[in-house]
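Note to self: keep these together.
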Amino acid sequence: MQTLTQFKKQLTVCASAVALSVGALFSGAVTAADTVTWKVQSHWPGSSSSYEDSLGRLKRVIEERSDGRLKLDLYESGALFKPKQTFEAVSRGILEMGTISPAYAQDKMTLAGIASGLPFAFRNVWEAAYFHQGLGFEEMLREEAAQYGVYWATDKVYPTEMVIKDPINSWEDFTKLKIRSSGALQKFLTEAGAAASYIPGSELYPALDSGVVDGAHWGAAQGAYSMGLYEVAKYHVQPALNIAGTDVIIVSQKALDKLPQDLQDIVKQALDEQFWFRTNEYLYKERITLAKAIEEEGVQINTLPDDVQQRLTEAAQEMWDEEGQRSERSQKALTMLKDYLTELGYL
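Structure:
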């Protein structure tokens, strides 16, 4: 038989448990038994290769590892918000997760231009991957995004390469181009002498087909192939305009904090793994996709003449310094980049 003292203690424990449960309810916390669904809007159209390869994969990994306790409800580009509104929607917690190009967050993130990829900097994908994960650039991005309640995770690093209707055989050919672009590359191409403008992915094919633009970049071979761009633009331009973390997965820190610790760990681990898996998978698929486009679509490689490459490199390096002036953080990142490129023998 319980003593009065034991009974009082039991009542106290029960009351504390009830108070904690009620507090969790009103604070919006999620218990271990709850099933949570996150709205996730992509900047990729559903037809883009990365919509399934990146976002579809992340959905499968998180739902499997969480035993279905965390589900991702995917929306393609523009379904809920315009692509450039996604960062703000995630920042405010209206969306739990989204994907963007860093260029879409330039008004908030002073590192966005460097994250989008400074033109003609890296020459190999592994160099950009090490800059992010080995030298600490990814952590710098994460720290800046945290100021806006956003958890930042680069999806992959990969080359950005143009497709064009007519080959570039001279500097004059380049300066006549009308190119669909975005972010730092849009600014670079314009300052270098071409006419670059932003067009949403959903409008890109008709713009290229109708002659509104003469060329575009949407990733590299995979992006161009999945969007049907090779149907109307038969020249694939190399070398890459840049190699960078041009796709980013952003998570609302508010939504992340509401999850039980084990689900938070699952999300973060999945995002960390995603970087390496998708970077390597993308490289593999780039090789086979470009070969397929050459064989089936009659695509030709247009290697820029040496003098054009030299003039573009000179224009690019002037732009690098402009990006470094955006903040102390961006200047630190630029200095780190230049030191790295010097070690690699490129500067």
